[in-house]
């Protein structure tokens, strides 16, 4: 079995208060589990930037392949400068929990993440339970909620009405027995 290499790099300085505060705010805003998710997404943005720098002197056809891929992810990329201007937040906005939250399926990004992890979200009728999944523009309209197979629980008012009916039936049955 071939071991995969790390897809992120740790920060150079372990205790840098400005970076830590920024990562904490990103974790809260985008419902990330830990800092590793921030680092992985930062590595992905860095990869796109490196590719753009390498393709700067290439032909337009080769550049258009990268631009098409980024446009497919929903990122604005029409030139090398646009790719170099990509931010971490641009990529975090395209993750599945944030798209679910923006479509209104959940009240908070944290709730959206939990829905994804608990396999309640379908993309083109396929369950997707990876919060790090980057949603393409074509898949954005195919996101739906999974229908529950469990019967709906009766509400409190329905329970009270059911108890009243049972008591009424119980009161009528002894009266019927006495009449016989």
Which secondary structure elements does this structure contain, and how are they paired or packed?
Layout: H1 17-30, H2 35-54, H3 60-72, H4 80-84, H5 88-92, H6 96-102, H7 109-117, E1 121-123, E2 126-127, E3 143-145, H8 156-179
Antiparallel strand pairs: 1-2, 1-3
State the main characteristics.
mainly alpha, 2 domains, Structural Genomics Hypothetical 15.5 Kd Protein In mrcA-pckA Intergenic Region, Chain A, about 55% helix, about 180 residues
Task: Report on this structure.
With 180 residues, the protein is mainly alpha-helical. The protein has two domains: 7-90, no CATH class; 95-147, RNA-binding S4 domain (Structural Genomics Hypothetical 15.5 Kd Protein In mrcA-pckA Intergenic Region, Chain A, Roll), CATH 3.10.290. It has helices spanning 17-30, 35-54, 60-72, 80-84, 88-92, 96-102, 109-117, 156-179; strands at residues 121-123, 126-127, 143-145. Strands 2-1-3 form a three-stranded antiparallel beta sheet, with no helix packed on it. Helix 6 (96-102) packs across helix 7. The model has no long low-confidence stretch (mean pLDDT 89).
């Amino acid at each position: 079995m071939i071991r995969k290499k790390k897809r992120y790099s740790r920060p150079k300085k372990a205790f840098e208060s400005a970076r830590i505060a920024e990562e904490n705010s990103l974790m809260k805003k985008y419902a990330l589990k830990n800092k590793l998710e921030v680092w992985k997404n930062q590595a992905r943005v860095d990869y796109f930037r490196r590719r753009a720098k390498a393709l700067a002197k290439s032909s337009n056809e080769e550049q258009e392949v990268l631009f098409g891929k980024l446009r497919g992810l929903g990122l604005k990329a029409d030139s090398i400068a646009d790719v170099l201007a990509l931010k971490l937040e641009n990529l975090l906005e395209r993750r599945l929990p944030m798209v679910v939250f923006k479509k209104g399926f959940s009240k908070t990004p944290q709730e959206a993440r939990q829905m994804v992890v608990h396999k309640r979200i379908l993309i083109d009728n396929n369950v997707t339970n990876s919060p790090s999944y980057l949603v393409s523009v074509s898949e954005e309209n195919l996101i739906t909620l999974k229908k529950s197979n469990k019967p709906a629980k009766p509400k409190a008012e329905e329970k009270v009405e059911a108890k009243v009916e049972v008591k009424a039936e119980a009161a009528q049955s002894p009266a019927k027995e006495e009449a016989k």
